[in-house]
Amino acid sequence: MTDTTARTLRSIHALFVAAGMHGTVAAQTPEAVSRDSVPFALAPDAYLDDTARRLVLGSKATRDTARLDIDAYTAVIQERMALELPGDRRNRPWLDGGRTARFRWSREEPTVVHVLGAGFRDPTLGPDRAEYFPGPRVERFAADPLGDPFHYAFAALGQPQEADPITRSPLEPGSERHYQFRSGDTLSVRLSDDCTLRVVSVTVIPRYRSIRLVSAIMWIDPESFRLARVAYRLAKRIDREMSWQLRRGGRWRPGMRLDTGPADPSDSALESDSSDAHPGFVDRLVNGAFNSALPRFQWDISTVVADYGLWELRHWLPLSVTWRGYMTADEGVTATGYLPPPIPGTIDWTVEIENVRERGAETAAGIPATAAEALRLWRQEGDSISGVLEETDPGGTVTITPADRQALASSDLLPPTYWEDDRGVDDATLEQIASELAAIGTGEGGDPAEAPSPWIFDSPGTTLRLLRYNPVEHLSVGTRLQRDFGWGRAALTARVGTARLELPDIDLTLLHDRPGHRMFVSFYRALRDSDPGEGGSGTPGLYVTGDPADFHWSHGAAIRILPPASERNWLSLRLFAEQDADIGTDNRRNRVGAGVAWRPWWGGPASGSFGGGGRASVWASRIRMARLDLQRPIRFLRLSLFTDWASTGGEDFYALGAGLVFMDGLLRLDAARGLRRGRQGGPEAVLRLHLLDGAFF
């Protein structure tokens, strides 16, 4: 792996990674559980019906039997990790990593893993470019039949195995303190061509909103109490909990810090070390300045679906997991603030079981009988071994990595990329599950001391990202107060200029966040240097010069409707009513209008797929614009044919053109010519080299 690629992957992991790993729990038999037991004594309102009580307590009690029924099993696991490049027009394939490994899990020995393929690809640099990919190494926890699926949320991103989990699992002892449970519908699950199983859904309701809790649905077999499927999302998006650290312990150690809030005494791995608990003055100064200058980020693990299978109708084992999330900047909760598109991320893995050795049975021919035999059979001269088998405890992992890593990167055993084969749970099912999870809400009786504060305050002067300069305000000092309601947020933003004493630039916005869309309702007194347009381009930037007469104050109200935060802004609608007052002349005009923009895209997302897109926008009654763009791939670039139309004040303009699109849409060279359509004279041909806006933050 090149230094550049390694730095890229470390940056991506810095955005997404926080510590977490599975643990073991004690078990009771279902018959031993009663209403007089400890869970009921601590939280008598945890189970909202008897069916939920029976299923959840039965599932907790029988989880250990998977270890007792199976001595060992071998399987091949394939994992994929994909990130998409955000864009207003369309999301593009960005980074893709795949990994294939054979493993042997044993109840009494360490897991032995043999890497068969591990490739990293960047489609924007060419379809044949491949480098070695270390991967999240999900076999460390996915291989264990007792592994808690609720720890996949954070642990899927390559967490240290020795760390305690961040997530408070609904299946751990004492989870009644943090969750309520309600039974739901009974569904049929097909296990084979002639066998179906009836499972019952149980909704898991977090008692308070926290990144350590989940909103979940569990489908449980009422006879064996085993999980057939688990679907969940974080009970709260990660925003204020995430910050950057340039310095730590008096040294330059760039990275990301995740504040998990108050921890139980048993959560020793979540406690800060001495360098975090008592940072030095320089560390606080540098880290504070860096975080106050960057926009606050939002990270959401929006859907995790884990499926289990009944192998030969006898043993429940993990079969597949689909993980989806996104990251975006979280600073646009204003009337016209720019909302950057998200970075969508997907991780999935599938397990193909080869052989299961039941308790006390003989090992099948060709299958290693012990961990030492697996290491001896699978290892070749020159291979690297991660650890010493004799010194590794049961539950640990010893990994064999072949010496020829370039061969691993181009192995035929690698899984297809995410954009080539969307396997696992289909998109329609995932969207339905995501909608159901988002509607769960919060329960009652949670410990308020463990819930994060719903308030966020960005103090004036010290929040560098809220400073700006323009010829009207001169230096403008901003402050912002936000309140999180769960269903959305309220944000009050004020900016006070230093040029003269007057009313501040002020904006109050309410955000209603729905699974299908976001709605912003704003009331404002805002300084603008032009018409705001659909994207808020009229708001002065960080540093603006010019004539104060070019600015005006706008007083009004607006409604904006956008797609969900996890989707690119392919459609936007803005309705407004405002009064504008020119600075200097104090001329006033009242306006009521609307702005709508539509940015569709047809065709596959891969760089080698034929596709087309467009853009249509209407702003009030004065300006209408549209573009149709068809693109055909030609090796490492695309040929584009496009046509433009614009209308201003009743006069129409047309143009036709062709272009070459490089780097999958980030850079293009266009040649276009305006059409006269009956007018005398007219625009001549234009050649333009330009970067497309909206591709990055």
List the helices and strands and how they pair.
Elements: H1 3-16, H2 38-42, H3 50-62, H4 65-69, E1 70-85, E2 92-106, E3 111-121, E4 131-132, H5 139-142, H6 152-155, E5 179-192, E6 195-206, E7 214-220, E8 227-234, E9 242-248, E10 251-258, H7 274-277, H8 281-293, E11 297-311, E12 315-329, E13 343-358, H9 371-378, E14 384-385, E15 397-401, H10 405-409, H11 427-438, E16 455-458, E17 468-470, E18 474-484, E19 488-497, E20 505-513, E21 518-528, E22 552-562, E23 571-582, E24 588-598, E25 601-603, E26 611-619, E27 623-634, E28 637-648, E29 651-662, E30 667-675, E31 685-691
Parallel strand pairs: 3-15
Antiparallel strand pairs: 1-2, 1-13, 2-3, 3-4, 5-6, 6-7, 7-8, 8-11, 9-10, 11-12, 12-13, 14-15, 16-18, 17-18, 18-19, 19-20, 20-21, 21-22, 22-23, 23-24, 24-26, 25-26, 26-27, 27-28, 28-29, 29-30, 30-31
Walk me through the structure:
By secondary structure, this protein is mainly beta. It folds into three domains: about 5-240 and about 295-440, no CATH class; about 455-585, no CATH class; about 605-695. Helix content is about 10%, strand content about 45%. The strands form three sheets. The chain has a 16-stranded antiparallel β-sheet that branches. The protein is globular, with a radius of gyration of 28 Å. Residues about 1-40 and about 270-275 have low confidence and may be disordered.
**Largest sheet entry:** 16 strands, antiparallel
Beta-strand segment tally: 31
Q: What fraction of residues sit in β-strands?
A: 35-45%
Low-confidence stretches: 1-38, 268-275
What is the total number of structural domains?
3
Which percent range fits the helix content? Answer: 10-25%
Structural class: mainly beta
Overall morphology: globular
Total DSSP helices: 11
The average pLDDT score comes to 82
* Rg estimate, integer Å: 28 Å
